[in-house]
Amino acid sequence: MAAATEARDTPRRKGEILNLPVKANVKIYQGTLVVRNGGYAAPGSTALNLVALGLATETVDNTGGADGAKRVNVEPGIYRFDNSAAGDAIAETDIGSDCYIVDDSTVAKTNGGGTRSVAGKVWAVDADGVWVKVGF
Length: 136
What we know:
The chain is mainly beta. Helix content is about 0%, strand content about 45%. It has no helices and 12 strands. It is globular, with a radius of gyration of 17 Å.
C-alpha cells in the first residue's frame, strides 16, 4: 500500500474491553489481574513470560475445560492491587517504575530473583494498596 494522498475513513475500535479465550483448567475471578499465558487468558501468578492485560470484568470458570473452551472479558486500566510485604513492598518513591506480579491480586517491587513478570507501571501508592497501570 502507498501512503495516503487524501483523507480516509479508517475503521477503529475503542479498545476498552478485550474478549479472550481462557487457558485450560483455570478459574478467573471478577476484579482480578488477568495475564496472557501461552496465548490464553489466565489469572496472574508468579511466573515468567506472562503479559499483564487488565482486570477481569466477570468470573469465568474453565476448570476441566480445554484451552479456549471459555472466554473472559478483560479491561486494561489503572487498578489498585494489594502491596507485597517487607523488602518487596512498593513505596511512593516507586511511582513510574515497573512492578511485578505475585498473584492475581498482589504486586511487588522486585522480580523475585527473576521469577516474576511485569504487572505494569506504579501509578500511585496509598494505605490500601498500589495503583498500577495495566495493559497497553
